[in-house]
Structure formats: structure tokens, C-alpha cells
Write a structure and sequence with these properties.
59% helix
């Protein structure tokens, strides 16, 4: 299943390529990203890029600190994946 962003970013905060991802990560995390990407077999590279793009999007989220604080104190709103899938299907959205 491919998750689509709830709020589209025009242009996206983090471009979906290695350079965009690397620019959004801090030094140690950037090094780990490159280590994993360079160590990945060709068929694994897309998964590494997807994982680190998600990390970079979270790192650059303007509301990131608020979300972390809400998660820590147990007030973060959550939604079951099944509910998201059902909602996307009902709205005619792509569900893979």
C-alpha cells in the first residue's frame, strides 16, 4: 500500500530524490542515509529512498515539535490504517 500525503506541499518541502533528502537531514542522519543508500542492492534502493524521504519530511515539518510533544504526553490524535483505507476508497482515492 502506498500512503499519500494528507496535505499536499507545492512544491514539496523535500524533493523525492537523494539530493533533496540529504539536504533535509542533519549531519549524522545524512551520513546514515548515504551509508544505507550506497549499501543497498538496486532492488532495495527505492525502499531506502522512500524511508529516508519520510524521515526528512518529518524532520522538516513545521509542526514537528508540537507533534512530538503530543506523542510524548499521550494527546496525539491517531487513526487506524483500515479507517484511512476506507476513507480513501470512499473518496475515490488511490489505494494500492
Amino acid at each position: 500500500m502506498t500512503a499519500q500525503p494528507i496535505h499536499h506541499h507545492e512544491p514539496e518541502r523535500v524533493p523525492r530524490n537523494a539530493n533533496g533528502i540529504a539536504e533535509a537531514l542533519d549531519g549524522p542522519r545524512r551520513a546514515e542515509f548515504y551509508r544505507q543508500l550506497l549499501a543497498a542492492a538496486p532492488e532495495e534502493a527505492e525502499a531506502v529512498l522512500r524511508h529516508w524521504w519520510c524521515e526528512a519530511m518529518l524532520d522538516t515539518d513545521p509542526e514537528g515539535d508540537r507533534l512530538v510533544a503530543a506523542a510524548i504526553d499521550g494527546t496525539l490524535s491517531i487513526t487506524a490504517v483500515a479507517d484511512v483505507v476506507r476513507h480513501r476508497r470512499e473518496a475515490g482515492g488511490l489505494v494500492e
